[in-house]
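Re-run with default settings, no changes from the original entry. Doing this only to confirm the output is reproducible before filing.
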Amino acid sequence: MCGIAVAIDWDGAERAVQMMLQGVQHRGEITDPVLSPRRNTAMGTRRLCIVDADRATQPQASFDGRLLVSFNGEIYNHTALRRELAGMGVPFRTESDTEVLANALQVWGIKAMSRLNGMFAFVALDVASGEFLAARDPFGEKPLYVVQSGTGFLFCSEIRPLLSASEEGEVLLLPPGYVLTRKLCAGYKSPANGPFEGAAESDPLALDRLLADAVQLRVPKDIPFAIMLSGGIDSTLVAHYARMQRPEAPGYFLGGTQARDFPYAAEYSAMSGTDLRIVSFDPRNDITLSRVGEVVSATESFEPSVMRSAVCSYALSEAIHKDGFKVALCGEGADELFAGYVPLEWAFSLGGEQGRLVRDQALAHMHSTVLQRVDRCSMRFALETREPFLDPGVAAYALNLHRDALVENANGLPRGKKPLRALYDLYPQHLPQTIRDRSKVIFDEGAGLESGAASVWPDMFEDAITDRDLLDGCREFEAFAIQSREELFCIRALARTMDISRVPHLRARAQIQVPGEVEQALRDTGAI
């Protein structure tokens, strides 16, 4: 896991890369030497040392020295790919997954993309020709941004360093599941992007094997790791499968004993013997406007769907980092794939076409909402957070399920995550039925940030932003469609740290459009 900075055909390339590396210092623990393999070209990395820490210096070269790769993320199946490439006679100098990626690209070209199981963003440079290939994982777990000027390109893992390194030009994001060359920007084939018929029935034993394998691949082999444990269906399953491999792994719960999620996390921990570590979180004392501004700066976002949970992710990541961990596992991605949110539950209950329409939007927004939150909050503290539910095999399984396999009727209302709930029945001695039967609770609500009329969150912004401020702010940031005091406060905080006018994707708000039939059902039940 790293922060990467690459300049290709850029005047002052080495200086630009050095400047960008200064902006991503928090993403790692070692700054590798900047390499300038061609005129006006430089590659640098701020590296979090996990896989083959001593020899994995970046950029890594392919076996023939033709390709150089700057890489952020983890290739979980690098051992299997290494074995296959070695069987073809490809030599290796290190045990790093970055070298496996460099050799896979050199041997298989762009077809290597469909063989990768991981979270990644990288830039591969052909040293001889100066051509490059930049790519991002299918769901956008890892970020990659670019500024282009003429034939020159700057790449970085975060937005603000690009703005600092280039006084002109817009900062664009590479979409998830896309590759970029000088002549092409297009999606690549992946097991996670279909096409899917949506006709399969659920098989708990098959899903059990898939999820167990996905977690096993993401459990680090030789360093300790933590589990972000909320007591919800998803994080509890991740903890269950992770502890099959490493039972000593602790679970971290954010919130006090009065938090809505605490009884569930405590029950699972008591049943399983998990070392549950409670991270104190009192919103009335711990959340201030200054703290919100700090999290806005870290996440490079002002979206409410990001910010409310981000203040929680930020506190949780900070605590895990302070205890010395460099890797954590979480349950993100399950709600989008297995219909865990109320709009998805209703959409699938009313028809497969409606369900897939809403789910496609939810998945498309993940890279700029939940996954951006997880990446920025954890990497602010040099913590690599891994999401087993976004494994290609697990994702493909979920996306091909029939709507009736995803959603069931519970007390007259649709209830999602049917396949995940069924896994609890396979392990009745290890997984509490009370968690199996839970309704979805958003992370920040479960941790205690929002609690109905007593919520501290909206009150902060009511006190900080007057009616006149709101009107003036909506005009000032008209292009960003500001709708609330909360959004105005956060976008002002973001604008103080970067020139948001140069970041066009910030104007594309993370909003899901639901079919009229679904919207009416949500209104009738008071969900909206």
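The mean pLDDT is 94. The CA atoms of residues 54 and 353 lie 50 Å apart.
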